[in-house]
Structure formats: structure tokens, C-alpha cells
Amino acid sequence: MLQNRLYNFFYFNFGIINKNYNFSMLICYFNRRNKKPIFPLKKSFPKYVF
Questions:
Q1: Model pTM greater than 0.90?
Q2: Domain boundaries along the sequence of the chain
Q3: Do residues 29 and 4 lie in contact, with contact meaning Cβ atoms separated by under 8 Å?
Q4: Which pLDDT tens digit goes with each residue over 7-48?
Q5: Which UniProt keywords are listed (predicted)?
Q6: d(CA 11, CA 25)
Q7: What angle do CA 6, 7, 9 make, to 5 degrees?
């Protein structure tokens, strides 16, 4: 639950900074709907974001 909120918070702010507001909201929406992080593995996390 806490990890899910942290992932939502990060993607939401990351999208606003890079002006991908709709994309970040889409990630947050599916993340809330699935009740799990989109990228559970921290090892593969930076590869998808950057």
C-alpha cells in the first residue's frame, strides 16, 4: 500500500516536470487499478524511466 502510493507520487511528479501530464496520470490510474507497482523490480526500474 505504501509502496504503491510512493510509486504513484513519483510518476505523477515526474510527468509534471517533463510535461507528460496525461502519461503520468495514465500510469497512476492503472497502478491504482491493479493495486501493484507497474515496475516492481528496482533493477529494471531506471531502464524504463530513463
A1: no
A2: 2-49
A3: no
A4: 666 665 555 555 555 555 555 555 555 555 555 445 544 545
A5: Plasmid
A6: 8
A7: 65
